[in-house]
Amino acid sequence: MNTVLVQEVIRYSKLLEGVAQTLKDLLKALKGLVVMSSQLELVASSLYNSTLPEVWNAKAYPSLKPSASWASDLLRQIEFLKDWINHGIPSVFWISGVFFPQAFFTGTLQNVARKSVISIDTISFSFKVRPTLLCR
Length: 136
Fold this sequence. Notes:
The chain is mainly α.
């Protein structure tokens, strides 16, 4: 799972760098320190309309949420990764908090296959839909 964690961190780092740079540039443009480019204008318009700016969406995980909810989720996802790094592999994974779930599932299958010394092609996931959610 270390490979999955590293890949997740890299993806989120690129996203956060892009978001931070765009916001710094937008702030400078709003202060009149740099020219407001058409791209920055689109970012400002998207944020005003509570939609995710396309320049962020190109680097982000799929989401249909408005920008405020998307940002809240992003912060929770970063906390999830920090906990994973600081406290080891979690006993429960927040699948929506994983940037690239396909890689996560493949990594999980690879770990089971290695541990059990069997071919990855012979194992798969199975799911059981429960009629009610048990709350503790």
